[in-house]
Design a protein that fits this description.
The chain is α+β, with helices and mostly antiparallel strands. About 30% of the residues lie in helices and about 30% in strands. Strands 1, 2, 3, 4, 5, 6, 8, 9, 10, 14 and 17 form an eleven-stranded mixed sheet that branches. Strands 13-12-11-7-15-16 form a six-stranded antiparallel sheet, covered by helices on one side. Keywords: ATP-binding, Kinase, Nucleotide-binding, Transferase.
């Protein structure tokens, strides 16, 4: 049986830095198995290795942003350069590790080694905000402001308690300006709620104060906001929180913590393939826990763009 071709992509800035010794252990285990894996932290080198290697297995060691970056390179090269499909194994070393939480990946060299040789492929969708990839979710509004503030002050690795200061600042200052969502590719069964601004069998327009789109049913802090999001259905699961005050925002957060937010009458859910999200204000957004910029944005999904080894 031929040895699998392995490319290991690493991020020196991932998370708290714990478990990073597992990267060296994985390289050692592969070389003991006579597998001369390629190792890089450079995106251009990653692209070159993917073009040179037949059906590689790519191990992405880092946080959600690093794993999303690698996933986007795999999808782009397969689509534009006709590069042979690669399989992806995340080695989670970030703060939240959303994709790893969903599929059970671990930052353990022995675990990753076993997946390289014995894992099975499962396809998942890949989302894009413009050209920026995401695997888990995009949100616009309050938490985007928290991530923006964190982005401005980040120095090295992020820990969960680092978020408290930007959260408190956002509670004091964020004003929940109106956000418009224009959706296309809405399944007819999702287009039956009466609080739309307008819509038909495949489009929908709605105003809210906090907008979220999920590819996976995971969110930061161990919270679950859209439990029914599926990673391989070719659709984005949208949640629109229509309240536009800090009291509404705190009510939503409490509801999420208690698992009751989906019962609120001012929480609207539907699915779509494409979203245009805009505002007359400079509303920030985040994707997979990284600051993305300000609205307007267009969000789309590429069905089954990535193969995971699980």
């Amino acid at each position: 049986m031929p040895l699998p071709s392995v490319v290991l992509f690493t991020s020196p800035k991932a998370g708290s830095g714990k478990n990073r010794d597992q990267i060296d252990r994985l390289i050692s285990r592969l070389r003991q198995a006579n597998n001369s894996a390629s190792v890089t932290a450079n995106v251009a080198e990653l692209d070159a290795l993917l073009r040179q290697t037949v059906k590689p297995i790519v191990v992405a060691a880092g946080g959600d942003g690093t794993i999303g970056l690698v996933a986007s390179r795999l999808a782009v090269l397969q689509t534009l350069d006709n590069v042979a499909p690669a399989r992806l194994i995340p080695m989670p070393m970030g703060t939240e590790n959303l994709l790893a939480r969903q599929f059970g990946f671990r930052a353990d060299a022995d675990y990753v080694f076993d997946k390289i040789y014995h894992g099975h492929s499962t396809p998942i969708d890949l989302g894009f905000v413009g050209q920026k990839p995401f695997l888990s979710m995009v949100t616009c509004g309050f938490d985007g402001e928290v991530i923006r503030a964190m982005h401005l002050t980040r120095r090295g690795h992020i820990r969960r308690f680092d978020y408290w200061r930007p959260i408190l600042r956002a509670i004091r200052h964020y004003r929940f300006p109106p956000i418009m969502i224009e959706a296309e590719g809405v399944p007819p069964s999702d287009d039956s709620q009466e609080d739309d601004v307008g819509g038909n069998d495949s489009t929908r327009t709605i105003q809210c104060g906090w907008a979220m789109a999920f590819n996976l049913p995971v969110y930061a802090g161990g919270m679950t906001i859209e439990p029914h999001a599926k990673p391989n259905d070719g659709l984005l699961d949208v949640i629109a929180f229509q309240g536009r005050s800090i009291l509404s925002g705190l009510r939503y957060v409490a509801g999420i913590r208690l698992g009751r937010h989906l019962e609120f009458p001012d929480v609207v859910r539907f699915r779509a393939t494409t979203l245009r999200v805009h505002s007359s204000h400079r509303v920030p957004f985040q994707l997979d826990g990284d600051y993305g910029g300000k609205l307007p944005i267009e969000i789309r999904v590429e069905p089954s763009a990535i193969e995971l080894l699980v």
